[in-house]
Queue: 2 jobs
Job 1
Amino acid sequence: MEFNEFCSRLLEKTDIVKLISRYATLRRVGNSFKACCPFHNERTPSFSVDANKQLYHCFGCGKGGNAITFVRDIENIDTIDAIKMLADEAGMELPKLSGENGKHFDKEKRLKLYELMREAARRYNENLLSPRAEIAREYLVKRELPPNIVTRFGLGYSLDQTDIIKYLEGKGYTKAEMKDAGLIEQKADKWYDVFYGRLMFPIISNTGEVVAFGGRSLDGVSYAKYRNSAQTEIFDKSKTVYALNLLKKKRRAGPLDYVIMCEGYMDVIALHKAGFDTAVASMGTALTATQAKQLKNYSDKVIISYDGDGAGQKATLRGLDILRESGLTVKVASIPDGLDPDEIINQRGKEAYGKILDEALPLVAYKLSILKKKYDLNDRDDKTAYTAEAVRCIKQLDNPVEIEEYLQSLSAETGYDIGVLRAQAKLYVDTDKPATSEPPQKEENKRGFFETFLLAAYINGKEYVDPRDLEEIFPDGFERNVVDSITDSRMRGLKDTAAMLYTDLPEGVQKQLPEIIDFDFSSIDSKADYDACVISLKCAKLEKKISELAARYDETKDIECLRESNEIRKKIKQLRELGGSK
Ligand SMILES: [Zn+2]
């Protein structure tokens, strides 16, 4: 089956209302559904879903499209991953992608790398049973990791430098593909498994694909305790959250009160084992906006559970602000005595850890506690600097009552008059507004009304449209892409032509589509209107050509320019007469 045809059928089989209701609370209004936009922070709903056209559009931030683009953008994944995810849900099998003109080459390659990584994960996991995996089994026993946990996280072991290479070659994969997947490297003509001798943690994307591995050294002498896959075509650590795939399964059963964000694989696994099964981990870097958005699909609240004095307080704070700016409520659990969550649970029991979560500090309170450690409040200058920073931090709260409460306790703490602090807080109002609550700027659109009408008429299947006119009027660019895409869909007899446009056209231009698809034909909708528009646009194009020729003549004095412009004038005259005779 041809790829576009497959996508069209997939869109027919997918219920966009049901899909989007997993991410936003939809309310029926007439024929459509409304919600607060899941793509930007807002309190009044400007996001609407059209059940008939199977399209969505946000009037606040301009995001819009079909089921495929929705999944792509909300999950922050590649288009092909979105298609695969919806296809899995619809019980449809992806067609073999033909690399016609290299059009789907990147998609094809991505799917191949997923298969390869899945095979590799399977092999590493089976290796745990090998007589040569004694050291890995000992480690699992020492860390008290039972078989169901090993299975849930797909843990494994890399036996030696070449086992995985031989195994994957046996399955038909090439060394080049293994290298592209980040599994092997070459040293002095010899290829080797970059993870050899390590305990393996598959890193699984939110669509359920193995995209990378983390490996923990077991011999105690390797240069790095943990090693992660390098960046590859299918793995970007700034867009990945470890164990997010498990949250997804749990989320289906009901909403999650909170997500626990910890530092490493072993923390996540220890917490799951103890029953805290909403634990995830960032990939060892500062949190990114993409990760924050992904988390927000599962819960509105995140509790940070980093090691006592782990990853550098400043880096952590920046990450926490990113979470807050994405609209998440952030709390910070303070783990005592430089221990990690695993050690707390082992030494003091899971109740002790539960209590730590209960007592987690709201982000602002946590920041203030960090600030306080930085300054000596008995020193006058320090106290002034601390107060200024504290007020700035308190101002980030949305709730005026909360702001007042914090200011009052700051006043009690520093001895500054509450009136002074309130005045200082006002000072920051305009400069510190979080940028994310504002919808992103809409793109400027220079297309005229006539052009929009022609495209809309074509998309909506008006009989008076002759595609040849459109091809002449729109030689290139966005408009031409729209025309070609519609022509192509028509020739294949596809339904949902408008919805298909979103999948077919390059990202970035899609914001321009709603204006065309939802065009209002009440004032203009006849063959005569159409002809008049076509003639007017064709003439405008020709006139533009004449002025170009005139400019060229001024420069070159080439007689040919005059001859050509006379020809064009004749054509314009003919066109005008044609228009008048109708
Ligand atoms: Zn929006």
Note: Residues 527-556 form the longest helix (30 residues).
Job 2
Amino acid sequence: MLSPRLLAAAKMVREGARLADVGTDHGYLPVYLSCKNKISFALASDIARGPLARAEENIANADMCGKIRTLLAPGLEGAENFEPTDIVIAGMGGEMIVSILDKAAFVRKGDIHLILQPMTKQEFLREYLCAEGFEFLREDLVCERQRIYQLILCRYTGKAYGLSALEKAVGPLNLKREDAALRNILKETVGRCEKILRGQQASGILDSQTLLLLSEARAKLEKLERRECCDGQ
Ligand SMILES: C[S@@+](CC[C@H](N)C(=O)[O-])C[C@H]1O[C@@H](n2cnc3c(N)ncnc32)[C@H](O)[C@@H]1O
């Protein structure tokens, strides 16, 4: 069984897809989706030999060698030849994901779905995606071992647009939620901003982007808590 984080990514992969799992490591995702017969083919790639060997072992143990190919390569290098329809890049920093996408012009096709799960720098990744014309189709927030993970499903349209500081940090679609996951990530965002600003207090120069994000996150949190309070009455 997959972890909640990888399961959320698996749910975003389309039925019958040709999957590319970049930075596959253990290969759990392509193995799970192939065993479930949800995908028609998978490419499991990784930049490092050790992780790829682990993936190869898991693929062989699941008897899925006929359905999953492995590739030792950085990012999406060489992946285009396998004509992926759905590309997962999970468990890496937002800056690394941007660097991988930026080097792969072939992902700029409306019929390719990108499923991204940044561990850090979510703002940086979303800023890149909206500036480069990728639209958000779905987002998710998943809690695993006391940590909230963000998932993004997007595709290329070529139409650039802007997002607020809070939309970049938490996700425009996630902000439409009204549940505990949203409340928790807003609290986490407020705490993170307060910590950054406390560290900057000695210098007397506070980062304007962090101040903006803090005020947007606090306002949204208050709105959410007011609604919960009204609903509870
Ligand atoms: C933390 S693991 C994530 C594994 C899996 N995707 C997951 O979400 O559970 C990150 C993996 O990405 C690989 N990796 C890091 N940078 C990469 C790059 N530029 N291209 C391909 N793989 C990369 C690492 O070798 C490692 O196996």
Note: Residues 180-231 form one domain.
